[in-house]
Write a structure and sequence with these properties.
Layout (H helix, E strand, L loop, with lengths): L4 H5 L2 H24 L5 H10 L6 H10 L16 H4 L2 H6 L3
Helix pairs in contact: 3-4
Length: about 100
């Protein structure tokens, strides 16, 4: 026989089972995202593991990306100027010569 061993043993039903399991996990992720909108993929992974789903963080992250369920991170206010460094020089900047 001149076909690769992997082709001979390939089982396409495993892909269908994986897709069905992904769909079940995706449904549960959507329910959790509605209930806990600020949960990221790490907290979602922990919650799914508590509910006895066999998942890891990479799979949850991929499913959340595909379903657009990743929460937006809050941007922090970044101070770009140290106003205390201007001090007494501030008056000289605005005074007329």
């Amino acid at each position: 026989m001149d076909i690769p061993r992997s082709t001979y043993y390939y089982n396409p039903r495993a892909d269908e089972a994986k897709r069905k399991e992904d769909a079940d996990i995706r449904d549960r992720l959507e329910e959790l995202a509605l209930r806990f909108p600020r949960y990221g993929y790490r907290r979602m992974t922990a919650q799914l593991k508590r509910e006895e789903f066999r998942v890891n963080h990479k799979r949850v992250l991929r499913l959340m990306r595909e379903s657009d369920l990743l929460c937006r991170t809050k941007r922090r206010f970044v101070r770009t100027t140290d106003s205390m460094s201007l001090g007494s020089d501030l008056h000289s900047w605005y005074s007329s010569p």
